[in-house]
Amino acid sequence: MCTAWKANMAQALELDSIGLKLCETENANFQKSSFYDNMANCYMYSNRFVEAEKYFRLCLDIDSSFDNKKQISDTYLNLGNLMLMQKKYNEAETYLNHSIVLADSTGYKQGKYSAYLILSDLYKATNQYEKAFTSRAIINAEENERKRIAADLHDGVGQMMSAAK
Fold first, then answer.
1. Does position 19 have pLDDT exceeding 80, yes or no?
2. pTM (2 decimals)?
């Protein structure tokens, strides 16, 4: 890891610590999750997996207490990615599938899309090419549907504007 990145990570972790102290002072428990998530990501991308998992689990505890399903979905996604980085494939798949179910139940399309991308990488890493292909097909189908809806909306608005003139 380069020196500049280490310095930036140290600075980010220091800012997160300050933010957590402010949350304590202001009794803003809901906001702690964001700081823990940032800390977990700093640790994950510096290959400090034990610390990363600890902070992701703190996020889950907080977000579960507030029933914040979107954020729980994101944390499961991050835990899946963390497990994939450690080649803990079964755990990664479990977390990613939890993320997809929650993202789907809340209409969180970007979270679902991201989880399928990582799941596809997991399947490629474990030579499960048919599952990897299926995951990519789901991603492509959803992307095509988004494009179709966007085009329909665009064309509909254009027609209404023309008719209004």
1. yes
2. 0.79
- The amino acid that residue 57 corresponds to is R
CB 74 within 8 A of CB 99: yes
CATH topology classification for 3-164 = 1.25.40
**pLDDT at residue number 143:** 72
pLDDT of residue 1: 45
**Cβ within 8 Å of residue 41, ≥6 positions away:** 52, 78
CA distance 131 to 154: 35
User: Tokens 């964001």 — which residue?
Assistant: 34
Tens digits of residue pLDDT in 99-152: 999 999 999 989 998 998 899 899 888 887 676 656 666 666 677 776 777 777
Q: Considering Cα of 35, then 49, then 70, then 136, what sign does the dihedral take? A: positive
Print the SS3 string covering the chain: CCHHHHHHHHHHHHHHHHHHHHHHHHCCHHHHHHHHHHHHHHHHCCCCHHHHHHHHHHHHHHHHHCCCHHHHHHHHHHHHHHHHHCCCHHHHHHHHHHHHHHHHHHCCHHHHHHHHHHHHHHHHHCCCHHHHHHHHHHHHHHHHHHHHHHHHHHHHHHHHHHHHC
